[in-house]
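hey so i finally got around to running the thing on that chain from the lab meeting. sorry it took forever, my laptop kept dying and i had to restart like 3 times. anyway pasting the input first so we r on the same page abt which one it is
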Amino acid sequence: MKYGNYIEQFSHDSYSKVQIGNDKKTITVIYDYLSRINISENDIKEIIENIAYLTKGTINIPLYLEILTKSYSFASDYGLNELIKVVKEIHDVYYDNSISIPLEEYIHDTEDVQLKKLFLGHNNKYLLKSFKKDVAIDHIADLKFAAAIVLDKKDYQEFLAYIDDYENYQETYSPLILFKTYMNLRNSLKKETKLFWDVLFGNEYIVSLNKNNITIRQVFKKENKLEQTQQLNLFSLNNEQPKEISNDIKTFQISTIYNSKDLPTFNQEKEYIMYFRKLGENKDSIILPKLKTNNYNYNIK
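ok and heres what got predicted. didnt touch it at all, straight out
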């Protein structure tokens, strides 16, 4: 492919041998992939410059790209720099138990295969998550505060058990049920904490569908017209103007879930699965909100 000026002029020699930026092939493959899904040249530059400084052996690049590209639309409210920061935090929650996939294999897989390989183990169990990182602990404190205000004691204890003691509750873990509870309290969260949990719980939601052999395209319309995701009072956390991002991103956007009308709210996971499978059989879809102003159109590849 024809490369932009940025990647042609990228200085690999300015990075140490232990940094991602020193690996010319990896940087080029990342650039190719981000270009192919229609992320702008300026945004690719910012993303790669953040990845390039990371140390080899501390990042699972397919995992990082998967979270970043599917949460990319949140940059319209928070700014790309803030999104990149939060994506790395979420990457670290998954990282210790993440599955290593060759980068070139990952970028040529279909969307559903990417999800399955990265977030479901060989026994089709959800990937263990570690919330013991310092930043994650801060986000947990804010989540607990909001949950204590909104939820009753029983719902609070059940909701937080999957975060405080996830390994012991893995057998009964249901992202679809957890997401329902999260929707009751998410508007009590602020700024980057809301972004962190929106991305993490939204990702787990689509992983749950994948685990049950329900593809994203079975549930949501192929062409999604999205509102800006958070409607912050400030244009972004850095007081910048709203970021206008590409209107033809070729990956599913997690924000689609939060902007969808009539998401089901069942009490048992099997009811969700039956509902979503029926949608697929009927070739129907969840209806998304109409455009308001300056909204963007995302296509699911």
